[in-house]
Amino acid sequence: xxxxxxxxxxxxxxxxxxxxxxxxxxxxxxxxxxxxxxxxxxxxxxxxxxxxxxxxxxxxxxxxxxxxxxxxxxxxxxxxxxxxxxxxxxxxxxxxxxxxxxxxxxxxxxxxxxxxxxxxxxxxxxxxxxxxxxxxxxxxxxxxxxxxxxxxxxxxxxxxxxxxxxxxxxxxxxxxxxxxxxxxxxxxxxxxxxxxxxxxxxxxxxxxxxxxxxxxxxxxxxxxxxxxxxxxxxxxxxxxxxxxxxxxxxxxxxxxxxxxxxxxxxxxxxxxxxxxxxxxxxxxxxxxxxxxxxxxxxxxxxxxxxxxxxxxxxxxxxxxxxxxxxxxxxxxxxxxxxxxxxxxxxxxxxxxxxxxxxxxxxxxxxxxxxxxxxxxxxxxxxxxxxx
Length: 387
Fold this sequence. Notes:
Blueprint: H1 11-25, E1 30-34, E2 37-43, E3 46-49, H2 56-66, H3 69-78, E4 80-87, E5 91-100, E6 103-111, H4 118-121, H5 126-131, E7 136-141, H6 148-162, E8 166-171, E9 184-189, H7 197-204, E10 211-214, H8 220-231, E11 235-240, H9 248-254, H10 261-271, E12 272-282, E13 288-296, H11 299-306, H12 313-319, E14 321-325, E15 331-335, H13 343-352, H14 358-364, H15 368-375
Parallel strand pairs: 7-11, 7-12, 8-9, 8-10, 10-11
Antiparallel strand pairs: 1-2, 1-6, 2-3, 4-5, 5-6, 12-13, 14-15
Helix pairs in contact: 7-8, 8-10, 10-11
């Protein structure tokens, strides 16, 4: 019987696992290893190198030892691939192997063994309500490294702990491995359990799911299939690479041909449940906290999408909150019941509550000039204070 790829196959893999363990023990989020350069860890957004410089021979030996058998032909042909790697006693890693200047490189994202709770991540309660949606499309957006996959996992774990649902995930590769609690869960990995997202998505609709989680929306077919699934009463949860919630609708439409966009936009207006976009912000205490922009498909949002007035989405989001002064004399943007907020409103509240510094807040704000005006007591949204 062939030896599982999760177990050390040679001395090079044994030492490689020791490098991973040292990184995890140091609190790293990512491990970077490439030929001719000291291996390094990303810890709290900064890189820290170690005293080890891999050779091409060593890297080839490690890759041969950790790459799953079913991925090796693709790696040989394409010179790059993605897979999950489980290091015994250390943890799981989302792994990307590729070449640069003809030399092997490995970048690994450490996946925590347990899904962090909403409270630990600092997520707003509205995301629990969004996760509980009986139907519709829920999108978690953000750039690479923004923590959107972790937030999405927390939303699924909330369902798993509180509802009896059938969840099917389609991932490339699988990151968090869920232990069934209240929910029945099947996790399918591209190139291991299915050969294409499109086929797996069609198959999922015949598997009696309540929730379908797609690791990432990649193209027009993914969105069209998701719209069809939402139309037939399913909840589709996925991620996408956009920098704000309000810009995501326009980005989705760009996947389609010009003559298809009006139809897709109207369909999206009827099936979209929410778009949440996330950014990681360094805290005043030296940690990291997510800042979120949340758009809920309210009557006003739906109308703006239907009428192709996408420029109104951000004003609608911001207009759903009003500025109030709490009992401690601190002004905050308060939710008026719809659960929406813009990045600027979220970051302003974090600054007022002492979670982030003004310098970091300005760096992460979508509109630093607007944030500066708010800090000077000038509020222009309806219901707010002007000064």
